Every structure is written in C-alpha cells, then in structure tokens.
Amino acid sequence: MSSNNNLLDVIIVGAGFAGLYGLYKLREAGFKVQVIEAGDDVGGTWYWNRYPGLRCDVDSLEYSYAFSDELQQEWRWSERYALQSEIHDYIKFAADRLDLRRDIRFGTRIASATFDSAAGQWALVAEGGETFAARYVVMATGPLSVPNKPHIPGLDSFAGQLVHSVQWPAEPLDLSGKNVAVIGTGSTGVQMIPLLAQEAAHLTVVQRTPAYTVPARNQEWNDARIAYWRDNFRELRQTARETRAGVLHEYGMYPAATVRPEDREADLERRWVKGGPNVLYGFSDLLRNEETNELVAEFLRGKIAAAVKDPAIAAKLMPYEYPVGTKRVCVGTDYYETYNRDNVSLIDLRSEPLKQIEPDGIRTEQGFYPVDVLILATGYDAMTGALLAIDIRTTGGTSLRSAWADGPQSYLGLGIAGLPNMFVVTGPGSPSVFSNMVLSAEHDVEWISDCLEYLRERGFPTIEADRAAQEAWMDHVDAAARGTLLNRAASWYRGANVEGKPQKFMPYVGGVNTYQAKCRAVAAAGYEGFVIGAATAGQRTGGEHQAAAG
Ligand code: NAP
To answer: How many Å apart are CA 347 and CA 184, to the nearest integer?
Structure first.
C-alpha cells in the first residue's frame, strides 16, 4: 500500500470530457489538481466503448469543447455524426494540446472516498491501496459508464465468446463465418446490428422492447460548413446554451393541435428527410400531450412498415407500449432494412419468451438459435452506477449508498447534502443525459470552478448542499418529470433497466436554459442553498485556509 501524502486542492475522478476540462479549468485558476482515471488513456465512455458502428448522435460540431478558441479552430470534424475513433482522437488531441496528461494518473480505479470531518479533507483509496488526499473532490465519473450486466437464465453456461458492448475488446472481433447474437435494441444495438449483419454468417437479434429509431442520414462536412462554424462558433455555442436540450435543433414552437393536419404531416416528413432526431422536435408538446405523441409515434411506425418487407417482422419492430421520446429515441443507419436480410433473425421476447441461454445458443419457447458470439448490448447502470460503485462516506457517519438507498438526492445535481466539498458533474438532478453532454459538462465544470474560487477568495474551507434546499430541488425535479409522459416508460432514465434499482426519474427535464439560469442565480446569491463553513479547530491547525465568518 502506498500513500500519497501531498495534499491536493482538488481530485477529479474520471478523464472523460468532464474530467479533462475540470483539470484544465481548475489548473488555470491556480488550484493544485490531480485526475485519477481507471482506464489507460483519456476518453471516459469514448475510451471504453468501441463497438462497431459507434457514433455520437449529436452533431460533431456541437459535441465538442466550446471553451477554447484554439481547439475549435485547429480541429476539423469530418462527419456530422462522428465515429468513436474520431471522438476519441479529438479527446486525445485536446489532452495533448492543453498539456493535461502530466496531472492524470491512469490505470487507477478509486474504491472509496472518505471525508474527514475534523480535518476537512477527502481521503481517496484506489483498488490496490494507494491513497490520495484533497480538500475537494469532483466526481466526473459520467452518467453512462458502468455496464448493466443482466441476469438471464443460463448466461453463465454460455461456452462461446461473451462480449458486453461497454467493454468491447481492443482488438477487432472476427465475426466472419460465425453465428452472432445481440441482446438489446437500444441506441447501442441499433448502431451495431446493421454492421454485425454484414460480417456475421448469421445474426440473431433478441429484442425485449422495440425502440423508436430514426435515420441518421450521416454526411461528410464540407469546407463551407466547417468555415461557417469556425467563424461563428461563439454565437452558435451561446445560442445552444439557451435552448432546452443544449443542442441547435430546429425546435417547433407550437403544439400539434394548433397546426393544420396536412402541415403536420409535411413537417414530419421534411424533418424525417433531414435526419437525426429532428423529427422529434416538430411540436412543442411531444412529451406533454398524448395525442401529439401518438401522432408522431404512428408516423414512425409507418416508416417501419415501409422499410421492412415482411409485415410480421415489421409488426414485431413497432413500439406501442410507451410514448415516443420517453425512452431515448435511437439514431441509426439501415437499422430496419437490416431485417430484410436472409441472414438476420429476430427473437421478439414479447411473443417468443426466452427459456434460457445454453452453452451453444439461445433456447426460446419456439426454438433454438445456435450462437458462437453473444453480445450484450444491455446498456448501463446509468447516472448513479459509477458514483455508488465507490464507497463514499464521511467520518461523521454519512454514506452515499445509504443516502441514495431510495434513489439519488442532490442539489442541482452538483452537491449532495451530508457530503461536504464534493461536487458531481452532470449528476442526477441536472439535465445531464437529457442534454448535449459536453455542453452540460462544461457548464458544470465552470460553475464548480467559480465556486471554488469564491471559497478561496473568502477563506471558506467547506461547502455543502443544504438539506432543505436539496429537498426543494428534488421536488422540482420530480415535478418537472411528472408534468410530462416520461414516467410512462420503463426506461434507464428511471433506473428500470437494472434489477433492484430504485425507480425514480433521475435527470432534470426542465431545460438546459432554465437549469443554467437557476445555477447562475444560486451563485450570484452567494451560493444560496449551500452551507458555507468556517474552518474547524482541526482545520485551522493543519490547513492553509483561515476561516472568515460561517
Ligand atoms: P439501453 O438504451 O439501456 O438499451 C439496452 C437494451 O437492452 C434495451 O433494448 C433493453 O430492453 C435490453 N435489455 C436490457 N436487459 C435485458 C434483459 N435482461 N433481457 C433482454 N433485453 C434486455 O442501452 P444502450 O443501447 O447502451 O444505450 C444507453 C444510452 O447510451 C442511450 O440511450 C444513449 O443515451 C447512450 N448511447 C448513445 C449513443 C449515440 O450517441 N448514438 C450510442 C449508444 C449509447 P428494454 O428496453 O426492455 O429495457
């Protein structure tokens, strides 16, 4: 066991988009910062995920850092929806360009974090025993980083190659001549299925719930588009921050009922042709009004019927059991068309229940499907998984695992009552996965950095979310979701995909613009809703910060 006795100002856990910007921003502000990362390179989810077909479904020009003119001007994105390899190259480029690697400890997974209430310091212990100490901790562990490993009967008996999409092998899998099966038809499954079908001898898709899928219509960026962005990126990025999703969608202003039926259909068709998630943003009340929702859902079902030749298979691919948009809509290329291939079978678990996985295949109530390579595209223990994987507690007796036993509680997603001097980036209770993640990560990092500068200038050593403010914020987060159809789906937004996980709608859906305005107001009012503490006796003897008033 080794101990790192150097007291840092800030430890950041995670070297994805959020952690890297956190390191840059806090270092620029004069703090002594260290990033600790489990992987062997930067990238976070874009390091671990490398399955075939992986792209981001936010435009690359928007899914990148806005804080740096240099990065914006020097990097040229090649496509609208960048491949994982290009996004990972971009993150590596940013880390090198900003000279970040020297303060990142790779290959080190944090197992526990304990706040010593008397000393006012966090002690983090890595798997393997190494310890790190800091006044503040920033959890940049990402909402989508811990794989959801499902309990499926017989899964452990499978004798072929078993791969989880989130832990894809570094070497490409050779699927030629193989019988391949994929369990899961969320964003991951929808992206990989068309490519696996081209490579495998036979592909079997296991579908528990069909996804609404829209065509990406990916394209190469031309020079004019890149030049436009380079010339106008500050304004474009600021405009994105003022939208509800943090993305420059073409947001429809009106509820569907106020639009003439023929205009509704034409607009949906136009947006469908434009590609990506555009078709979801035509009406202002998609997630609030059942009739509007059904109108869009039926439009999308019609597209499935048009794409899939066998009407029986098309029917199996049509979602009816939840409103469109209440599970994340998938963006794909040739997804439905793939089911027209002779080498693709669909097991729809609703009409063909699974009996068990066997050493050499999948047995359902209707038949047996031989499998050499079984791929779990079963998603993530989202939003809370990475935080709860670390035993986070205080010597005063608070434990995150107990505090979140009934679901996550936070103030603005940024602070947690009972856990002083800890911040979360894109945490539950913030827009997070309901927004452009890079934009939200940048916002949260900037807010945290401003907060730490505020504390330093005034000599306040501790800050902690006030419990009453946290409860009021959680009520607001719940109310925002209750005002929509979002609780009508068994989605990962609600923890429904992980056995035993508390069911609670986790992201804040009141809008990026509303949320960021609230965060600005909180900061302007001297971090209203946070308790800012004077130094304790223990801190005064050992610490460099002297307290002013409490
Ligand atoms: P996901 O959306 O949670 O999908 C997991 C799939 O596995 C679902 O179809 C689910 O069925 C199925 N499944 C889970 N447990 C199962 C079980 N025990 N038996 C049978 N089927 C089971 O996960 P994901 O596809 O990895 O995507 C997660 C999120 O990551 C996305 O929503 C998105 O935010 C992000 N992502 C984005 C992109 C992109 O930018 N294009 C790509 C990949 C991921 P149920 O629906 O019935 O639960």
So the answer is: 11
Residue with tokens 């036979």: 202
Strand order in the sheet with 368-370: 354-358, 361-364, 368-370
The confidence score (pLDDT) of residue 4 equals: 53
Rounded Cα gap, residues 31 and 476, in angstroms = 34
Integer angstrom CA distances of residue 169 from 156, 163, 177: 19, 8, 19
Task: Please give the Cα distance from 118 to 159 (Å, whole number).
Answer: 53
- Domain range list for the chain: 4-146+382-549, 213-376
- Atom nearest to 433 CA in ligand 1: 34
- Ligand 1 atom nearest 190 alpha carbon: 25
The answer to whether the beta carbons of residues 256 and 291 sit under 8 Å apart is yes
Q: Is the CATH number of domain 4-146+382-549 3.50.50.60?
A: yes
Contact 249, 276 (CB under 8 A): no
- Three-point CA angle 133, 135, 138, nearest 5°: 90
Cα of 255 from ligand 1 centre, angstroms: 29
Q: What is the pLDDT of residues 215-267, one digit of tens each?
A: 999 999 999 999 999 999 999 999 999 999 999 999 999 999 999 999 999 99
**Which positions of the chain have pLDDT values less than 70?**
1-5, 535-550
pLDDT at position 5 is: 59
Q: Which residues surround ligand 1 with Cβ inside 6 Å?
A: 55-57, 144, 150, 152, 183-189, 191, 206, 208-209, 328, 331, 377-380, 433, 492, 497
Residue (of 70, 36, 332) closest to 212 by Cα position: 332
pLDDT of residue 540: 40
Count CB atoms within 10 A of the CB of residue 396.
Answer: 12
For residues 58-69, one letter each, b for 16 or more C-beta atoms within 10 angstroms of the residue's C-beta and e for the rest, the string is bbbbbbbbbebe
Residue 77 · residue 60 · CB < 8 Å:
yes
Q: Which of 119, 120, 181, 134 is nearest to 36 (CA)?
A: 134
* Ligand 1 centroid to residue 490 C-alpha, Å: 12
- Compute the distance from residue 322 Cα to the ligand 1 centre, in Å: 15
For the full predicted model, state whether its pTM sits above 0.85: yes
Q: Give the pLDDT score at 170.
A: 85
What the block records as the tokens of 408 is: 């996550």
* DSSP tag of 430: B
d(CA 430, CA 140): 14
Please return the burial class of 128, using the count of CB atoms within 10 Å of its CB with bins 0-12, 13-18 and 19+. exposed
Residue 549, pLDDT score: 25
- Our mutation pick for probing the ligand 1 site, out of 63, 167, 187, 217, counting the most ligand atoms within 8 A of Cβ, is 187
To 10 degrees, the CA torsion angle through 380, 383, 389, 395? -170
Separation between Cα atoms, residue 495 and residue 489, nearest integer Å = 11
**Which pLDDT value is given to residue 218?**
97
